[in-house]
Amino acid sequence: MIITRTPYRLSFFGGGTDYNPWFEENRGLILAVGLAHYCYITARYLPPFFSDHTSRIVYSKIESVLDHNDIVHPSVRGCLKFLKIKDGVEIHHDGDLPARSGIGSSSSFTVGILHALHALQKQMVSPEQLATEAIEVEQHLLKESVGVQDQIMAAYGGFRLIELGPGNHWHVKNILLPKEYLQALEDHVLLGFSGISRIAEVQAKKKVDNILQNKTTEELQAIFSLAQAAFEAFRQQTNFDVIGNLLDKSWQLKRRLADGISADWMENLYDTALRNGAFGGKLMGAGGGGFFFFLAPPYKHEKIKNSLPQIKVWVPFKIDQSGSQVIFYNGS
């Protein structure tokens, strides 16, 4: 039996520049952290004692199948196909945070599945290989309109700068900051769930279509420049009000990448947070709902929370430093 633990992610800057049609021609830049909230995958080979199924997949549903091609869950089906696994398996998923909420949960799931299946085959894999394979599964096998930051952050964790392009290339750098500054950053972050889940594919496809039609070139160039400025600000351990101001500028641009990313209720929520002391923030992920993230002085947190009854749950923020890990291995 194998158990993997794979972090979700919080993207600070550069979202939208990680879509291949953009960065292969123009370059992209992402600043993101792995969240110390996780997707857990348990996997084992299933003994051949069952006449009605050879594999069993347990997530929000339970699937029992005789043929892997009959698995409904696209990521599970795709990963088994990608790794050419024919033997019967049992796979269970558990997650700390809700799916379809802007924290990269789909890619954390894919990376966690791949990691577990490699471990079942007694194969050690690097974060680079895990990220590359997850991108291959999601973009090419499953034909999903996704970028590449989620898979990379799920595999690597930590506080990372991801340099993208030109061409289909990417490079990950660790952002090294003093422990005290990272602790202060964690203390300034507010992460709240709106209670609304959405399918990221819908918004992502709109973004890609707009990129291909050159409708958002100006916005993405500005988002790239803000990511560069934010990287320098972090490197210089700049005050968080400055970084919050960059976040606010980036969010105003992100809203324009596709119709439906934001809505009146989201704008009201965001504006209320700023009026009550937040330096800046954003709606996480592709847009349309999910998690909100704000940067605000700790002494303002309670006031901001009280002003936002729409937020159903406030989630503690801490940076994961390990990336995807095998936390239990019994390969006998």
Overview features:
Ribosomal Protein S5, domain 2; four-stranded antiparallel β-sheet; single chain; 39% helix; alpha+beta; 332 residues; nine-stranded mixed β-sheet; 11 helices; 2 domains; Alpha-Beta Plaits
3D structure, described in words:
With about 325 residues, the chain is an alpha+beta fold. It has helices at about 20-25, 75-80, 105-120, 125-140, 150-155, 180-190, 200-210, 215-235, 240-255, 265-275, 300-305, and strands at about 1-15, 30-45, 55-60, 60-65, 90-95, 160-165, 170-175, 190-195, 280-285, 290-295, 315, 320, 325-330. It folds into two domains: about 1-175 and about 320-330, Ribosomal Protein S5, domain 2; about 180-320, GHMP kinase, C-terminal domain (Alpha-Beta Plaits), CATH 3.30.70. Strands 1, 2, 3, 4, 5, 6, 7, 12 and 13 form a nine-stranded mixed β-sheet that branches. It has a four-stranded antiparallel β-sheet with strand order 9-10-8-11. β9 and β10 (about 290-295) form a beta hairpin. α3 (about 105-120) packs across α4 (about 125-140). It is globular and about 60 Å long.
Give a short summary of the structure:
The chain is 39% helix and 24% strand.
